[in-house]
Amino acid sequence: MQRYFFDIRDDDDVAPDEEGLVLPSLAAVREEVAHSLADLARDMIRVEPRKRLAIEVRDASGSVVEAARLQWTIQRPQ
């Protein structure tokens, strides 16, 4: 098993993951990324009508092994 670090990009800001998670495979990493990004979006979509979010996953050597991005715009009908 390997430790992976999930850095969060919120528009142009980056919050690096200093702790990481120990996961058994890249498939587990992908599942964790999907759940984490969905949770972040669900929390933010209520207050941010326009946003770009991303999670980039690094392994212990610092190489990015997975990345997921989500962008939304909420518009009110005129």
Could you give a quick summary of the protein structure above?
The protein is α+β, with helices and mostly antiparallel strands and 78 residues long. The protein has one helix spanning 26-44, and strands spanning 2-10, 13-15, 21-23, 50-58, 64-73.
Description:
This protein is an alpha+beta fold and 78 residues long. The protein has one domain (2-73). It is 24% helix and 44% strand. It is built from one helix and five strands; from the N terminus they run βββαββ. Strands 1, 2, 3, 4 and 5 form a five-stranded antiparallel sheet that branches. β4 (50-58) and β5 (64-73) form a beta hairpin. 6% of the residues are buried.
Features:
elongated, 24% helix, 78 residues
List the helices and strands and how they pair.
Blueprint: E1 2-10, E2 13-15, E3 21-23, H1 26-44, E4 50-58, E5 64-73
**Number of DSSP strand runs:** 5
- End-to-end Cα distance, whole Å, is 53 Å
Are there runs of 5+ residues with pLDDT below 50, and where?
none
SS field, number of helical segments: 1
Query: What fraction of the residues are assigned to beta strands by DSSP?
Result: 35-45%
What series of H and E elements makes up the topology? EEEHEE
Domains counted in the coordinates: how many? 1
The major pleated sheet works out as: 5 strands, antiparallel
Give the proportion of residues in helices: 10-25%
Q: For the residues shown, what is the average pLDDT?
A: 91
Shape: elongated
Q: Cα-atom Rg, whole angstroms?
A: 14 Å
Name the structural class.
alpha+beta
